[in-house]
Amino acid sequence: MAAVGLAAPIALAHTRGAPYSLKVHQLELDAGATGVPTIGPHSFFPAIAVVAPAGFGTTPALPAIRFRVAANLVPVSVMATMLGVDEPRPLPPAFFVNGRPDVPRAVQTGVHWLKAWTIKQGGVPLIISPARESEGRIVQMAPDAGKVIRQTFLTMFRSPWKGGPVLAVWADDKVLGQIDDDYRVTAVCTVLDSLTHAPLWLKARQPTEIGSSDSVLPPAVDLDPIARVALEQLTRHVNLGTGLTHPSDRGYAIETVQALHAGRRKLSPDDAHAWAAQHGWRPDGANELRDLVIGVAAGKHYRHRGGTLRPASELLAMWEREAAKA
């Protein structure tokens, strides 16, 4: 195979719809290839062949395209799940500790969970907190935290870390979404200063409470059957690696939400976000979908290019037929 071009290091998107988390170091094209694919950050491919260095395992290459990846970036077991898999990668088990009214005890409970999970399940434990100042407070409240790798919200996952359970202290929806999105995370527990700081994550994940069972979580997802079919079809259509950034995907999403609204089918913004998070959407995409539901309900007019260009009545009829088959 003759190499006719090189690509700068590119990160393929980790998506739970078809998760690829590979650093591409070299793109080789067959000299007879008729076209050069456009590849950018978070590019998504429903099927791809990866050729790894000797001793790291190989898979059959596509006739015209081969990717060479660094051996130390993705374990073989993870790579096997990333190739040609259409099912969403399961989200890691989720837990939480209510930080009120006893904050020190809540932090201690979280650190105890982190130690216990690591002993039982393995991995490299990691504590993530808002800032370096917060790290000092955490170690003061739970001295065992000083023996664990610690990162901040700004630096998390930037330094080398082999993967394992994560304790996120005083995190919010955005941070917890990023943690869920990292394929190296085997379990996550968060100590919440207030349940109001992460309502979307709590709704989507319905985590198990540690240390108590008195907290009231946001209600689980409750979708109209027609809305569920619509979101399932939308999920199959869009590129989960890039969310709704592509005009075609955004257009399809706008049409879907507008049709559901026109048909008076129940779809709350939080239900849309939670369902998307549970079905392979990355955090940014789930947030964009939620914003669309809010905007359409408020009467906002969206102009778009792409989508099915089918009237709302036709889309609703199609979804109703699909729902009737279930």
What is the fold's blueprint, element by element?
Layout: E1 10-11, E2 23-29, E3 50-51, E4 65-69, H1 76-82, E5 94-98, H2 103-121, E6 126-129, H3 132-141, E7 149-152, E8 164-169, H4 173-181, E9 185-192, H5 199-205, E10 208-209, H6 225-237, H7 247-262, H8 269-278, H9 283-297, H10 312-325
Describe it for me?
The protein has helices at residues 76-82, 103-121, 132-141, 173-181, 199-205, 225-237, 247-262, 269-278, 283-297, 312-325; strands spanning 10-11, 23-29, 50-51, 65-69, 94-98, 126-129, 149-152, 164-169, 185-192, 208-209. The protein has 326 residues and is an alpha/beta fold. The strands form two sheets. A six-stranded parallel sheet has the order 7-6-8-9-5-10, with helices on both faces. Strands 1-2-4-3 form a four-stranded mixed sheet, with no helix packed on it. Mean pLDDT is 77; it is low at 1-86.
Looking at CATH, the homologous superfamily of the largest domain is P-loop containing nucleotide triphosphate hydrolases
Radius of gyration: 22 Å
The number of distinct helices, counting runs of at least 4 residues, comes to 10
Please write the CATH class name of the largest domain: Alpha Beta
Q: Determine the N-to-C terminus distance.
A: 48 Å
| Class from helix and strand fractions | alpha/beta
The shape is elongated
Measured as a percent range, the helix fraction is 25-40%
CATH architecture of the largest domain, by name, is 3-Layer(aba) Sandwich
- SSE pattern, N- to C-terminal: EEEEHEHEHEEHEHEHHHHH
